[in-house]
Write a structure and sequence with these properties.
The chain is mainly beta. It has a domain at 1-74 and 280-420. The chain has 1 helix and 39 strands. It has one helix at residues 22-25; strands spanning 11-12, 18-19, 37-42, 48-54, 57-64, 67-68, 72-76, 79-84, 90-96, 100-107, 112-113, 117-121, 126-133, 139-146, 151-159, 169-174, 177-183, 190-196, 207-214, 220-221, 226-227, 237-244, 250-256, 259-266, 270-271, 275-278, 287-293, 299-305, 308-315, 322-323, 328-332, 343-346, 352-357, 363-370, 378-379, 383-386, 390-397, 400-406, 412-418. The strands form 8 sheets. Strands 1, 2, 37, 38 and 39 form a 5-stranded antiparallel sheet that branches. A hairpin with a 6-residue loop joins strand 29 and strand 30. The longest helix has 4 residues, at 22-25. The protein is globular, with a radius of gyration of 20 Å. It starts with 10 loop residues before the first strand and ends with a strand.
Length: 420
């Protein structure tokens, strides 16, 4: 790490080039598998967990002030998701076609991952799992389950503090995708959004739908979903994302052609009307749209628009909360560089971090939006880490940031950073 490249970085809990050796276990230490996926989650106490999917296998690892723990094999995996609460408790969920959805939890008091368990069984193939934990550890998982060509189900299930699944949602759909889940308040109420085709024969212009979950002695899902987009049937919808502030409010964003739209669900009032938050003036279809929302109700979206990495903030502190009028350009890739989706996360008090594979293929870059910046909050300068980045992942809690990526030697690497 070159201090001149990272003036905001004062303390490293972990060396920036920590090779975890996951791919070496598979005997391919000299080969990069472009299909390897990595997820990371951190809390503000310095606890971190890492999940890696490689060659159809799941690997889990944890980190605390004493260093990284042993690599644990979670078994066969198709796709996976990872989340952590404010106390360092973490949970991973993954699909193992055609069995169903599996999960495992990490307990920071013991420093151990629990045994994997079947959260819900399914005779059909399951895809695209998503997971959210609230600060207290209540969870909501969602995924898509096929039931024939173009026909499937949106499924979701709440998870209690032990990971025990509750009442499951099962809604038949046509050509569904992008199921997203969130716990929206401290009582365990939740929300799921997804996009699906209009009919069995029309999957090119999907719509966005949402269903809410009420916890309590008589838990119930809304089995009459709400359409939250205003798609006229002309443009395809992609990159659907959902986030919550934990106080009953949620935001969903998606790209529609070259434009980006958002809709918010207000506690006690429900979903509003979708609004265009970026007109796509450059003319490129957004790539890798990401969304994160903090506990104060602020939100950030980030995406690639051609060679430009853009970020747009939603300010909940205004008299009338609103999105910025125009996005901030965080980076511009030189001609010929193939853009990759960025990674994004927020803390609980208005801060944010975006990480991406930079113009130089040997570096990972990240920028921090810091509300503690003198005079006024701004996006800080770009900081760099050495290592070729495939599937860059980032997590932020308080002043702690975790970044993980794949390097050119076929290893997964991770860095834990504490901001001043």
């Amino acid at each position: 790490m070159n201090p001149a490249l990272s003036p905001r970085l004062r303390k490293l809990l972990l060396a920036p080039l920590l090779a975890l050796g996951v791919l070496s276990i598979m005997g391919t230490s000299q080969v990069v598998d472009p299909k390897a996926h990595v997820r990371i989650a951190v809390d503000d106490g310095g606890t971190a967990v890492l999940a890696v999917e490689f060659d159809g296998q799941l690997f889990l690892q944890d980190y605390d002030t004493s260093g990284w723990g042993p690599i644990i094999s979670g078994g066969s995996v198709s796709e996976m998701a990872l989340a952590m609460d404010s106390g360092g408790y973490a949970r991973a969920v993954w699909t193992h076609a055609p069995t169903g959805l599996f999960q495992a939890g990490f307990d920071p008091t013991t420093g151990k991952w629990g045994n994997s368990t079947l959260a819900t069984s399914a005779p059909e193939y399951s895809y695209q799992p998503d997971l959210h934990l609230d600060p207290a550890g209540l969870g909501m998982a969602a995924w898509y389950q096929t039931a024939g060509p173009g026909i499937g189900h949106i499924r979701a299930v709440p998870l209690d503090l032990t990971g025990t699944p509750g009442l499951a949602l099962d809604i038949p759909t046509y050509y569904a995708a992008d199921p997203r889940a969130a716990v929206i308040d401290a009582t365990g109420n939740g929300m799921v959004v997804w996009r699906e085709g209009r009919t069995a024969n029309d999957y090119t212009t999907p719509q966005v739908w949402a269903s809410g979950f009420l916890s309590g002695p008589l838990p119930a899902w809304n089995l009459s979903p709400t359409q939250i987009d205003t798609n006229s049937g002309i443009l395809p919808i992609t990159d659907l994302r959902l986030a919550s502030d934990g106080a009953g409010n949620a935001i969903a964003v998606w790209s529609q052609g070259i434009e980006i739209y958002a809709n918010d669900s207000i506690s006690g009032a429900g979903w509003g009307t979708a609004q265009r938050i970026d007109p796509g003036t450059v003319g490129n279809i957004p790539l890798g749209l990401q969304l994160s929302m903090d506990l104060s109700g602020n939100a950030v979206v980030a995406w690639m628009d051609g060679s430009d990495l853009l970020a747009l903030r939603y300010d909940a502190g205004l008299i009338t909360p609103a999105w910025e009028a125009s996005p901030t350009v965080l980076d511009t890739l030189p001609p010929g560089v193939i853009p990759a989706p960025p990674a994004l996360d927020t803390d609980g008090t208005g801060g944010a971090v975006v990480a991406w594979s930079g113009a130089d293929p040997s570096v990972i870059s990240y920028r921090v939006y810091d509300p503690a910046t003198l005079l006024a909050p701004i996006w800080g300068p770009a900081n760099t880490l050495l290592g070729i980045g495939n599937h860059v992942a980032v997590s932020m809690d308080g002043r702690v940031i975790g970044i993980a990526w794949s390097d050119s030697g076929g290893h997964e690497q991770a860095t834990i950073i504490t901001l001043p």
